[in-house]
Task: inverse folding
């Protein structure tokens, strides 16, 4: 039997848990704080494989094994690894309070509506995009992915011409919880810039990223991130737009299907116009950046994002040059046309990690856009969308009113072509 005990966030270690243990495994600070039996073997956790091999040898001899872990070891913890290797029936798990629960308790907030994301041994960009998209996020940190790195990534970075730091989704504060449950515990509220400028040391337990204006939220039935929207490809009337210059919902429906926006993704909407695609991607959980050159368009996008209760970063400028200062996206939607379209599609294709979708009204733009996608290593497909909508006529009758046809082209990156993308 392996007894897995959560400790380190304030709960005392049960007095009898180490009695008769032949092997005790844990982090150095957990082992140092525990009164180990004199005859027990001690293994300090570092690389997991050697420690698991020692555990297996003791189990073969029917020795009692105790594993000390932080907080709740079943929550992004060692229980998963142990269950995969030895089977859950051999585990006696005694959870403590997780660092996430403890951190939210320290600041007096509920966390049933929080999104929890781990950056420990994982890409930081996923955690950054979740923080950009959601108002209440807990980030489990690790070496190279601590408060300083998270804060730096959340800064808007070098501002493209015509933009300022205020153009990023704002209002975020970082709550850095260190050494929870110990005599050295500290919980500090800082801005991303303040977090980026400090050396936080190795004792960070968790970082909360909050939009404090939305930190309380409403009464929940299901824990975790909010459920996805009940519908998408919203009617054009749900967005402010100028002279019907908006991606029609039939086109938007297929574009969203090909973009596949999800929590943890970053999506660009280039030539955003009303920002309808960026807003819909944000509603589906992605972090969204809308690129628009006209000042009135920028204001319209911000108004649409606010009306739908989502965060969209708006960057004013002309593509492709304005794209240089943006983080690499997972997916890109390119709307509009013009002589710059091939260069815009090429710039997007060379940065996108997964997908580029292009909407064009002019058929003669299609070959150059397709060449830009295939030249960047994408497989490419497309369709001409033509639809007719029901429209009333006098006399209580209905006709079909045709919408303008739009060619939708999409490229998907093949595994081999992804090697050249900045990671």
Result:
């Amino acid at each position: 039997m392996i007894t897995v005990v959560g400790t380190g966030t304030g709960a005392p270690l049960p007095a009898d848990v180490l009695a008769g243990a032949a092997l005790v495994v844990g982090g150095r600070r957990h082992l140092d704080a525990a009164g180990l039996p004199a005859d027990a073997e001690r293994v300090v956790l570092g690389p997991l494989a050697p420690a698991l091999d020692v555990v297996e040898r003791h189990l073969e001899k029917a020795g009692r094994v105790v594993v000390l872990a932080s907080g709740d070891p079943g929550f992004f913890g060692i229980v998963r690894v142990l269950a995969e290797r030895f089977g859950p029936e051999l585990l006696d798990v005694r959870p403590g309070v997780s660092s996430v629960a403890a951190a939210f308790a320290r600041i007096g907030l509920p966390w049933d509506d929080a999104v929890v994301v781990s950056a420990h041994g994982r890409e930081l960009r996923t955690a950054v995009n979740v923080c950009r998209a959601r108002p209440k996020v807990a980030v489990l940190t690790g070496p190279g992915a601590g408060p300083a790195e998270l804060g730096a990534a959340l800064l808007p970075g070098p501002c493209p011409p015509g933009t300022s730091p205020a153009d990023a989704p704002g209002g975020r504060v970082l709550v850095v919880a260190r050494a929870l449950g110990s005599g050295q515990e500290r919980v500090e509220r800082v801005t991303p810039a303040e977090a980026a400028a400090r050396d936080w040391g190795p004792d960070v337990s968790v970082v909360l990223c909050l939009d404090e204006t939305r930190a309380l939220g409403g009464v929940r039935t299901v824990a975790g991130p909010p459920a996805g929207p009940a519908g998408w490809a919203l009617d054009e009337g749900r967005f402010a737009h100028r002279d019907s210059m908006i991606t029609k919902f039939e086109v938007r429906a297929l574009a969203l299907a090909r973009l596949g926006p999800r929590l943890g993704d970053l999506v660009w909407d280039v030539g955003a116009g009303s920002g309808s695609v960026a807003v819909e991607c944000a509603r589906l959980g992605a972090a969204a950046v809308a690129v628009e050159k006209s000042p009135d368009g920028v204001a319209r996008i911000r108004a649409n994002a606010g009306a739908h209760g989502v965060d969209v970063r708006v960057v004013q400028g002309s593509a492709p040059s304005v794209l240089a200062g943006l983080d690499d996206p997972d997916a890109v939607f390119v709307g509009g046309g013009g002589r710059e379209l091939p260069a815009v599609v090429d710039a997007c294709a060379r940065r996108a990690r997964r997908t580029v979708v292009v909407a064009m009204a002019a058929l003669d733009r299609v070959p150059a856009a397709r060449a830009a996608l295939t030249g960047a290593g994408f497989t490419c497909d497309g369709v001409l969308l033509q639809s007719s909508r029901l429209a009333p006529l006098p006399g209580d009758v209905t006709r079909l009113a045709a919408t303008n046809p739009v060619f939708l082209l999409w490229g998907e990156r093949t595994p081999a072509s992804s090697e050249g993308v900045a990671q």
